[in-house]
Design a protein that fits this description.
Length: about 290
């Protein structure tokens, strides 16, 4: 029988969006369809620049009076401010909500305390549950083996799931590069959202040549932000790392060309192999001129 593992994610926080216009307000801004955020569930989504790059990625959880947006703690205040910029006269209230702590559990189901809000991680079932706990709750009361944040990220890396701020820089990556299209983070049929035209064009033309994929080193991988090279030419950057395993934002067409030429991929001095998870369903894009 699988054991339950749970980790408190101290680098995550919650922004609350409430009011009679909360649903309509978010629907016109975020990459996913807010109507998919049903009670007991959640959606993975983001807010983009007008040029289609990811400013914020978050999980949207329905609440009685609106929605809770679970986001990197370092970006929570900035998200609240950005949403306020779009508010104009909409009947919505936007504020950070310190009454919640964020945890993740995987394996067997946890024991939920009163006031907790749990849902399957909307990106990938294998990630387990995301849990919004009352801020004064003890994660040990979930009845699980207490895991560290590093152990949670090892679990995430093994599944090949990227995270903003760790595997791509906010403001510098398109949703396709961050695998939003494969991890239920964007709805191409919902209509307009900020940056929608660029993202839809990438989807229909199949022009996403960079992707975040898994890499496996022949030895321990170097630190994040190390260049990935093929034949000495940079083709990407290493993101999250756990021992010999990691995630990297790569030009997949360049990686394919290197493979055909018998050139190894290296992260620093460590030879690496691509580890593309089955859920990614990636096709190598056609070669293009270097950019």
């Amino acid at each position: 029988m699988k054991k339950c593992n749970a980790a408190l994610l101290s680098d995550r926080a919650v922004v609350r969006v409430t009011g009679p216009a909360a649903r309509t307000f978010l629907q016109g801004l975020i990459t996913n369809d807010i109507d998919k955020a049903k009670p007991g569930g959640a959606i993975h989504s983001g807010l983009l620049t007008p040029q289609g790059k990811i400013l914020f990625d978050f999980v949207v959880v329905p609440a009685a009076d609106g929605f809770l947006l679970e986001i990197a703690k370092a970006k929570a205040g900035e998200l609240a401010q950005r949403l306020g910029f779009y508010k104009l006269r909409a009947q919505v209230e936007i504020a950070e909500d310190p009454s919640f702590a964020v945890a993740a559990s995987w394996g067997a189901p946890p024991r939920l305390p009163e006031g907790a809000i749990a849902h399957a991680d909307p990106r990938l079932p294998g990630l387990g549950l995301r849990i919004l706990l009352p801020a004064d709750a003890d994660v040990r009361n979930l009845g699980c083996t207490l895991a560290s944040e590093d152990q949670y990220h090892t679990h995430r890396i093994a599944l090949g799931v990227p995270e903003g701020g760790r595997d791509y820089a906010f403001g510098d990556a398109f949703p396709h590069e961050a695998m939003f299209d494969r991890l239920a983070g964007v709805d191409f049929n919902k209509g307009c959202f900020v940056g929608q035209e660029v993202v839809s064009r990438m989807e229909h033309r199949g022009t996403a040549r960079k992707r975040i994929v898994g890499v496996e080193g022949e030895g321990p991988l170097p630190s994040s932000d190390t260049e990935i090279t093929a034949g000495g030419t940079p083709i990407g950057t290493l993101g999250s790392v756990s021992g010999n395993s990691g995630l990297a934002l790569l030009r997949l067409d360049r990686a394919e060309e290197a493979k055909a030429a018998g050139q190894p991929l290296r992260a620093g001095e460590v030879t690496v192999a691509l580890r593309i998870p089955a859920w990614a369903r990636l096709k190598t894009p056609a070669p293009a001129a270097a950019t």
